[in-house]
# Entry
Amino acid sequence: MGYDILSKIIEFTDSEEALEKRLEDVAALLISFFAFDQCAIYLFDQEKKILILAVEAGSKQEGQRVYREDEGLPGLAIKTGKPVFITQFGRIKDVWQGIADKSASGFKTVICHPVKDDILYGALYMRSMDKKIISPKKKKLLAVIALQLATAIKNYECIVHLTDANKKMQDMQARLVHAEKLLALGEMAATLAHEIRNPLMSIGGFTKRLQQQLGADPSHSAYVERIVKEVERLEKLMDGIVRFSDKSGYELSLEDINNIIEEAAQFFEDEFKGSGIAVVRDMTPDMPRIEADRQQLKLVFNNLMANAIQAMAKGGTLTIQTRHEDNWIVTEMSDTGGGIDIKIMSNIFNPFYTTKETGTGLGLAITHTIVTNHKGIIEVNNNMGVGVTFVIKLPVAREQGGNYE
# Structure
């Protein structure tokens, strides 16, 4: 009989079900085999040093959901590293061997077994309203079951950690590929900008002089005016390429992120009103300073606000939030413009990629480059049909007016 239940336990714990489902199946099986009324399985949080209820099977009487490592009978079991087997033969008490435990209230027999190998993973807590005598054979069997549970939890945690590590590696690889792409394009853009800007400026200058000489002659002025506008558009494109390719010349100083954002928002104040866009500010005051090039960083928020205005052409809400998290100053800029098409999400930071008829495709690429050059991170949370949130994380300056963090 012991082999049968152990075989079943192994089958449950080795299944591909979610961990919670596996533990539920084990708890239900233990209630049936040991003829107990209730079985709870707790998982140990290594950081907080607490036991947290994972599953509970059997009677509807709810047990305590969280135990400190020195609290109750589970605390005794993990403190000593040994299982607790207690039966009350007299009047039922709320105190068991001098230890108060609400989960044991109303029961006559309790078993609390640590789930561990070299490391503690949790506790198995069984309760019965009847007096039970647990044979040595069943105690040994329970020890093997607890060890199998520890192995199952350990394997699950390893898989979760490996999955997280793999995802982080994939994200890092994608960022490296993107950085290499930006570097190559930046070098190419710098060369092109140098070769194109000088003759372009000459074309623009001569065209404006020609426009002045033609005066109001309608037969040619339309063409000349068109040339002037196209040259201006090309000059704007060249300026964007120069900003994108220029990695030097940053003038860093200690800055307040809120002031930079406010300065950028004031520039678009008329456009916000004209487009029916409400700006909601939720900015934490008196935060640590960041080390930044004020003008470059203002360009980041200019680009994001300009995109938000275009996305909310028929009105909406732009929410700007700032906060301090650990060693980061975090800015979130959320619009209600309907979000970004999933098909183009992977390209939004690529230079020269645009869905706008008159766009250069450099706005978000420049934004990404500036944030990266500030040793920061930019992320996009896209909620299709609702809106998009750009999250910018910039490191807190180590030196805060003479003080070090």
